[in-house]
Amino acid sequence: MKIAVSGKGGVGKTTVAALIIRSLNAQGKHVLAIDADPDANLAAAVGIRGAETITPISEMKDLVHERTESRPGVTGGYFKLNPKVDDLPDNLSARLENIKLMRLGGVKKGGGGCICPESTLLRALITHVVLSRDEVVVMDMEAGIEHLGRATAQAVDKLIVVVEPGRRSIDTAVNIRRLASEIRLTNLALVGNKIRGEQDKEFLRAHLPDFEILGFLPYDDELIEADLSGRSPFDTASRAVAEVQALIARL
Q1: Which helix (H) or strand (E) holds 217?
Q2: Which of 10, 106, 124, 225 is at 20 to 30 A from 41, Cα to Cα?
Q3: Sign of the CA dihedral 140, 146, 149, 150?
Q4: Contact, 19 vs 240, CB < 8 A?
Q5: DSSP 8-state symbol, 229
Q6: What domains can you pick out in the chain, each with its CATH number?
């Protein structure tokens, strides 16, 4: 199964992704976790020690130059568009039990995006893990879906958009669906997060009536305290853990 998780910044997207990853691991699944959001730290949310010391792949300049055959310090010029990446998940992943985690990092973009060695390597890596790996793949994406192309989008089993009760979160969900449809990624569903009661559930149902809703996760001080103390949300007594396990069963 290949799962991508997206949503507006601050809605708890990385928390939801981490709960899915740890729940799958607890079921005995082998999980390849991809942190594709430069502003998040999926490794810390999963509970990997030394998460802050993991070097993003986009910052591994020697690796980028070796695989793309680009020239260090040179802007422009020729480089390989199909670099070798199939060995990277096994060689460069941080590990916890059955989980392998890769942190992609960000790429500085010009006006209309970037065709550069770093972005080429990351896109090739995403294509490989989605199309060729036999683990469960869970990708924590940016608010958009920049790392996905048409070829990989067709192989994503579910794009999960995390939303909270709020107008901006709803607008982001609608925009993500539009972007996804442009690359023919139509298997999309919502997870409502930070839900305080039935009123919040009805708010999301009313404003996003034509979306599939996989489930709702509660607003929970346990999760806030876990984030502040650097613990994984999976290692708490939050009701969200059981809710995510039920969500996975529906997936």
Answers
A1: strand 212-218
A2: 124
A3: positive
A4: yes
A5: H
A6: 2-250 (3.40.50.300)
| SS3 annotation, 94-132 | EEECCEEEEECCCCCCECCECCCHHHHHHHHHHHHHHHC
pLDDT on residue 230: 86
The secondary element (H helix, E strand) that includes residue 4 is strand 2-6
SS3 of 220, please?
coil
User: For residue 4, how many C-alpha atoms fall within 13 Å in the half-sphere facing its CB?
Assistant: 31
Q: In this structure, how many other beta carbons lie within 10 angstroms of the beta carbon of residue 217?
A: 25
Which tokens hold the place of 229?
Answer: 């103390």
Cα distances (Å, whole numbers) of residue 18 to 28, 37, 64, 67, 160: 16, 13, 27, 30, 13
Rg, C-alpha atoms of the chain: 18
Distance between CA atoms of 227 and 224, rounded to whole angstroms?
Answer: 5
CA distance 246 to 32: 21
SS3 91: helix
3-state secondary structure of 201: helix
pLDDT tens digits, 88-133: 999 999 999 999 999 999 865 544 445 688 888 998 999 999 999 9
- For the chain, residues with pLDDT lower than 70 are 72-77, 107-115
